[in-house]
Amino acid sequence: MTDLTLSELAAAIAVRKISALEATDACLERIARLDGRLRAFITLDAEGARARARALDGELAAGRRRGPLHGVPLAYKDLCHVAGLPTSCGTRTRDYFTSQIECTAVARLTAAGAVTLGKLNMTELALGPFGDNPHHGDVGNPWKAGHVSGGSSSGSGAAVAAGLAFGALGSDTGGSIRLPAACCGIVGLKPTYGRVSRAGAMPLSWSLDHLGPMTRSVRDAALMLEIIAGHDPHDATSSAHAVGTPAATLDLPVRDVRLGLPENYYFDGVTPEARAAVEAAARTLAELGARVQTLRLPDPAPLIDVAGVLARSESSAIHARIVRDRPHELGAAVRARLEVGFHVSAHDYLQAGRLRARLTRTFVQEVFAEVDALLTPTIPEPPPALAQVTAPPVDEIVRRMGRFSRLTRPFNALGLPVLALPAGFTADGRPLGLSITGRPFDEATVLRLGQAWEQASDWRARRPPV
Amino acid sequence: MTDQERAAQRQVQSDVAALAGAIERMAGDLALGEEPSNFEAALEAGAPRD
Question: Taking CB atoms and an 8 Å cutoff, what residues of chain A touch B41?
Fold first, then answer.
């Protein structure tokens, strides 16, 4: 049963072919069997999930269906505030983050009928791309033990890939949805900045934070997006831009969609197999009628500097108390990254905000005059061995972090929607990642392109050998 | 202060100086009317027409 996608399960529950309790128990059985190795969960609410599933089954029997996710078991990154459950944010403090309101995205999924299984492991304070955690254990890569699961939404990536949950929420400040999606061979969507409310989720950097779905299929990501997107009075940055129905347009043809393969930066230093996988996806989409061209993008280096100033300043301000009062509780690399922000001047922070606006305007005007979407690798290499990238010294770990997330960070500064999905596998079974980036608020096009690639390839039929 | 702490401090100073230098180089020709909230306006302006 856990091989079903979220959409397939929701349809089966709706016609009472499968009950919410059966689906929940299937996840709980798998968690009991596999999570000792994967360490995807920080908090499991088995009793709460079973009680909710039983109640939802009763409602369905009485003719009431709450919404499109009625009875579907989901799990949430442990920085989303969920009523009645602790939110550690990957720290050793059980209730590191508290909120007056439940995470809006979680509340919307719950209102649509989802069952909450629990809270998912993550890199400490969402600061790191490898999926390691000194307090809750390193999240295992379901495809290759001992290799990077991707961070910071590492538990979300592993849980979805291994069938412990039918979908998850992740957050993305520099690649934290897309990197674990790529490492764990699943679909992750970083929506446009402002598309999904961040209310009730721990902030890392107000200017760069995004929440989004992590799923086993593109259709599942579209379905979750439709539910969680839209203006929220609790988040001043959430947009009133119309959400539309991206799931309904997924199967429209991609003929004449203009696709760009960047000539600069995005393939520099990328391993041959990671490059070949993206080029193969481009060829497949071209065979389906898309028009593929190469193009030179505005230099991403200024975007990375601007994002660096914003991220470091904001994260240090937000998490100042733990860095000042309890620095010994933080991992060395996390502490080192937060320390920088204390020394960035207000002048530079404000200039970075002004520059970001200009760089974004220029990028959107120039690039989307030429193409409708970009194809790039998500990670520059297949998931490496975890021990190799987390080996000291600390400054070298921080540099490795920067290299591993170099292809994702520019798109947080730009706020553009990016769909990360599998592009293939290495000979030894490690996933390779493809990213599809679109114009602002055009998640429908990136999802449609992702659907076309998913349907034309056979990667979704593969299951991790857990 | 230990050697390790001194090295960490030097690294922080170096990182901050690199970021400040990059921002200074780019910000020289910012116009008076360019403000951070133009970012959200750029996204809205770049959205597909409904």
Answer: 357
Closest Cα in chain A, distance from residue B29 (Å): 10
* CA–CA dist A193, A317 (Å, integer): 21
Selected catalytic residue, list A19, A88, A152, A239: A152
Name the residue in chain A with its Cα closest to that of B50.
A242
Interface check for A246 against chain B (CB to CB < 8 A): the answer is no
pLDDT of residue B4: 78
pLDDT tens digit string along A405-458? 999 999 999 999 999 999 999 999 999 999 999 999 999 999 999 999 999 998
Instruction: Provide the edge-to-edge strand list for the sheet that holds A373-377.
Output: A41-44, A115-120, A73-77, A168-172, A210-215, A187-190, A418-425, A431-438, A373-377, A258-262, A291-295
Radius of gyration of chain A from Cα atoms? 20
- Where does the pLDDT of residue A144 fall: very low under 50, low under 70, confident under 90, or very high at 90 and above? very high
The ipTM estimated for the assembled molecules is 0.95
B32 touches chain A (CB under 8 A): no
B34: which 2 tokens? Answer: 């360019």
What are the pLDDT digits (tens) for A64-123?
A: 999 999 999 999 999 999 999 999 999 999 999 999 999 999 999 999 999 999 999 999
Tell me which of A7, A19, A176, A239 is the catalytic residue: A176
- Residues 6 or more apart in contact with residue A242 via CB below 8 angstroms: B50
Distance, CA of A71 to CA of A49 (rounded, Å):
10
CA distance A421 to A445: 14
Q: Would the pTM of this model clear 0.95, i.e. be above it?
A: yes
Instruction: List Cβ neighbours of A401 (8 Å cut-off, separation of 6 or more).
Output: A128, A129, A130, A333, A337
Q: How far is CA A413 from the centre of its chain?
A: 16
